[in-house]
Amino acid sequence: MYFSRLRVAPNQLPQFTKLSQYNHYLLHQVLWQLFRDKPEQGRDFLFRQDSDSHGLPIFYLLSKYQPQHDGNMWLIETKPFQPKLKAGDLLSFSLRANPVEQVKQDRSESEQLEHAEQRKAKGLPEKQTKKRIHHDVVMQLKKSLSYEERQCYSQAELEQQAGQKWLNERGEANGFRILSVTAQGYQQHHFKKRQIKISTLDFTGELQITDADKFRHTLFTGLGRAKAFGCGLLMVRRSYVQ
What we know:
Elements: E1 2-8, H1 13-22, H2 24-32, E2 45-51, E3 57-63, E4 74-80, E5 90-97, E6 100-105, H3 109-121, E7 131-136, H4 137-144, H5 147-150, H6 155-169, E8 176-191, E9 196-209, H7 212-221, E10 234-238
Antiparallel strand pairs: 1-3, 1-4, 2-3, 5-9, 5-10, 6-7, 8-9
Helix pairs in contact: 4-6
């Protein structure tokens, strides 16, 4: 694996700014081009967009292959990433995630008919199933509260409560437990061209590895959904928290 830091070349900043303002999905496609010569098809890298101390865009990538660029848009720094991990290790972490939870919901009559036709077209036997819905945990928490209850919480408190619960619930299956976490910076993003809407939440804190193999897999494959839109990259460093 390789961990890379990408900066936009100074003479490309005007073009990049226009691109990122008006076509977010195309921006993601530009990043995919860094790996167009890899042997396999499909996306096998994680990334995250941030800003440096001067407010300029900066990207972090974790990838199976070293990014290659034959143009003049990027300034790329890359190093091998093969962390030595064991159960009990303490790590500081940073994560931008798409905090959603999956629930099953009954289909309407028309949805049942449509679902049955889809199964029939695929040669599958008739079967009644519930549809799977992904709920934004911050918005879902808001909706679960009465008007009077919502007045007792700030937006920051709702983000922290919903985000902390979401991350804690994913710890065991992903080889870690949370020692401390701050969840903040909730945003909703709309990709109108592809009719996609996602939300993001930023997490920082301390964790302890409980299963090194599971945690290593989580590092390399990401945490949560919407990885194609810059979510799921768990960035870690050694911690000496007691």
